[in-house]
Here is the input.
Amino acid sequence: MRTFIKGGTLVSATGAQPADVLIDGERIAAVVEPGSAALGEITADEVVDAAGKYVVPGGIDAHTHMELPFGGTFASDTFSTGTVAAAFGGTTTIIDFAVQTTGAQVRASLDSWFAKAEGQCAIDYAFHMILGGVDDAALKEMDSLVDEGITSFKLFMAYPGVFYSDDGQILRAMQRAATNGALITMHAENGIAIDALAQQAAERGETAPINHGLTRPSRLEGEATSRAIQLALVAGSPVYFVHLSASEALAAVSAARHEGANVFAETCPQYLYLTLEDHLGAPGFAGAGYVCSPPLRTKHASHAADLWRGLRTNDLAMVATDHCPFCMKDQKELGLEDFRAIPNGIGGVEHRMDLIHQGVVEGQLSLARWVETCATTPARMFGLYPRKGVIAPGSDADVVLYDPAARQTISVQTHHMNMDYSAYEGFELAGRVDTVWSRGRKIIQGEAYLGAQGHGQYLKRGLCQYLR
Here is the structure.
């Protein structure tokens, strides 16, 4: 199958320019100046008129949690439903987190994630590995997994008794990463202090959802981020901070990067658009729909403005979603009497490209930076470039036709995620996905899903390309 996309504006991490794109099978065959190739020479099976639209590389969401077990339930999106929703939003690759809980074996845990995803995904996928217990066996497994294309490992400074690693364990894992080339990804919140604050709030009878945020202050994210950076510097290891939400944490990352350290971070749309007061503090139990960790931050500080600035300056490398959806009914409701029992997570894999494009519309980012933060940098950060993240000859034909003139309103009534509410209900956005190709196969056209369960392939990843 050969597809010729003509008349559009090709947007890459380096800029935007008119260009025509030829897809041959699963790969990009050519990128040419408009009109430089006669249609007879192209011999395409399908010619797509992209006039007035952006032609961008498929998005890469490097932080998802499909089917994640949490708090006695599971994330409501399966690899099947979640990847279809991602495709509707212009994302053609996810990197999900395989989970080793404390006491389990790393290999067995990873194999269970392969079993969940195999034959289910609508788009391509890869895995990070969560280390729920850092011991000699886990450290040895790190080496073998790097050889197999699992080149990033997540540690938690939060959730004592579940995922938590102490400073000594973190240091040992970072030391191993310094020798095998892996990238340590870090959930940086001071979980020991947070648990004490949460217990005190519960004892005072302060059990509403907003207390989830009030007991996880931004200073404790900043403190943990600073501490993890120091451990990485001692170990000689790179470190990548997931879902960075707070000005204090960003300041620590910025300072380390200014000194030339291999320190990187992502943020998520919820921290750019949602707030503690308006969403987590919504009347009644509605705020439970916005419980995530780190929590939404107060609108009375400069957190969101600082995060947008961090995206412009590259102190924040990219945008992921931390997609971890739970329904209100029977899932978020587990915490009706105690905010500590509300499953942590917000669904957003379908809306990332649109929400960050809104930043372009509002003057927060350039078009090139939109593509860079949503596609190109994730590919380079996590060893998928140039197969992914760019429209260039030889790259996978993961292509999104994006209509900047279209308008949409986000709603639970129209989204494709397996959730009974939307964290972005009523958001009116400029721009929307028109058509999506995954490895040359058209899988989205307007409101129609044309893909197939099992089309997505597992991706063996290389090493991070940003290490200095």
Summary: The first strand starts at residue 2 and ends at 12. The CA atoms of residues 79 and 116 lie 7 Å apart. The longest helix spans residues 218-235.
